[in-house]
């Protein structure tokens, strides 16, 4: 019996690798992206194109407006995206984003009778986000066990985090081994409408360093 999996896909480097890894394991993949009021909308086009490139991946976009609560440089246009490293939790952290995203992914997984949810959280190059840590994933896995029909009936849905302990360069190497075309991905926090990166935000710096450390030519399109 084929294993169904919901894959959280932003259109960025990590989630493209995540989808490739799940697909290579013969998962029946359901790609899920969010139009959440983010300033870097080009990533949604990237996510759609990446999913379509497989030919057998179902892709869905859920719209919700996290800009209504703001509190992040990614959802509040009055907060500038920083161009220098920050101490502590940066202003690009979106309050409760992964908690919200996983809740919707969990709902879809229940409807599909999927047994896995893949999320590309990373505890190495995680930019200080609290909802990318192993502690968060463990807590959410416990929640799944008590908050879902599947969990109550003894067939819980497993959170899969294959990137959580990998460096950015290791993620890139894994992706290349699985045939990921990183030129299709958009990681920049403030990419333009064509998906071209700024080259100076935290995400751009981490991405560029990853390609350099991996000894791979950076295919990112910069404006």
Automatic annotation (TrEMBL):
<feature type="binding site">
    <location>
        <position position="188"/>
    </location>
    <ligand>
        <name>Zn(2+)</name>
    </ligand>
</feature>
<keyword id="KW-0067">ATP-binding</keyword>
<feature type="binding site">
    <location>
        <position position="201"/>
    </location>
    <ligand>
        <name>Zn(2+)</name>
    </ligand>
</feature>
<feature type="binding site">
    <location>
        <position position="198"/>
    </location>
    <ligand>
        <name>Zn(2+)</name>
    </ligand>
</feature>
<comment type="function">
    <text>Catalyzes the ATP-dependent conversion of 7-carboxy-7-deazaguanine (CDG) to 7-cyano-7-deazaguanine (preQ(0)).</text>
</comment>
<keyword id="KW-0547">Nucleotide-binding</keyword>
<dbReference type="InterPro" id="IPR018317">
    <property type="entry name" value="QueC"/>
</dbReference>
<feature type="binding site">
    <location>
        <begin position="9"/>
        <end position="19"/>
    </location>
    <ligand>
        <name>ATP</name>
    </ligand>
</feature>
<comment type="similarity">
    <text>Belongs to the QueC family.</text>
</comment>
<keyword id="KW-0862">Zinc</keyword>
<comment type="pathway">
    <text>Purine metabolism; 7-cyano-7-deazaguanine biosynthesis.</text>
</comment>
<keyword id="KW-0479">Metal-binding</keyword>
<dbReference type="InterPro" id="IPR014729">
    <property type="entry name" value="Rossmann-like_a/b/a_fold"/>
</dbReference>
<dbReference type="Pfam" id="PF06508">
    <property type="entry name" value="QueC"/>
</dbReference>
<keyword id="KW-0671">Queuosine biosynthesis</keyword>
<keyword id="KW-0436">Ligase</keyword>
<protein>
    <recommendedName>
        <fullName>7-cyano-7-deazaguanine synthase</fullName>
        <ecNumber>6.3.4.20</ecNumber>
    </recommendedName>
</protein>
<feature type="binding site">
    <location>
        <position position="204"/>
    </location>
    <ligand>
        <name>Zn(2+)</name>
    </ligand>
</feature>
């Amino acid at each position: 019996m084929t294993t169904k999996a919901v894959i959280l896909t932003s259109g960025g480097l990590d989630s493209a690798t995540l989808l490739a890894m799940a697909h290579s394991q013969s998962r029946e993949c359901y790609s899920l992206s969010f139009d959440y009021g983010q300033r870097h909308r080009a990533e949604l086009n990237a996510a759609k194109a990446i999913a379509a490139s497989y030919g057998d991946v179902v892709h869905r976009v859920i719209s919700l407006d996290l800009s209504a609560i703001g509190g992040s440089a990614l959802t509040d246009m009055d907060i500038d995206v920083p161009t220098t490293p920050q101490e502590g939790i940066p202003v690009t952290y979106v309050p409760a984003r992964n908690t919200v995203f996983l809740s919707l992914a969990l709902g879809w997984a229940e409807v599909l009778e999927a047994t896995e949810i893949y999320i590309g959280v990373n505890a190495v190059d995680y930019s200080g986000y609290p909802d990318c840590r192993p502690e968060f994933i463990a807590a959410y896995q416990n929640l799944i066990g008590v908050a879902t029909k599947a969990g109550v009936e003894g067939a819980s849905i497993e959170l899969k985090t294959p990137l959580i302990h990998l460096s950015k360069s290791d993620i890139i190497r894994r992706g290349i081994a699985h045939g990921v075309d990183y030129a299709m991905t958009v990681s920049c926090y403030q990419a333009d409408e064509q998906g071209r990166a700024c080259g100076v935000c935290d995400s751009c710096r981490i991405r560029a360093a990853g390609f350099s450390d991996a000894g791979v030519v950076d295919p990112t399109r910069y404006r």
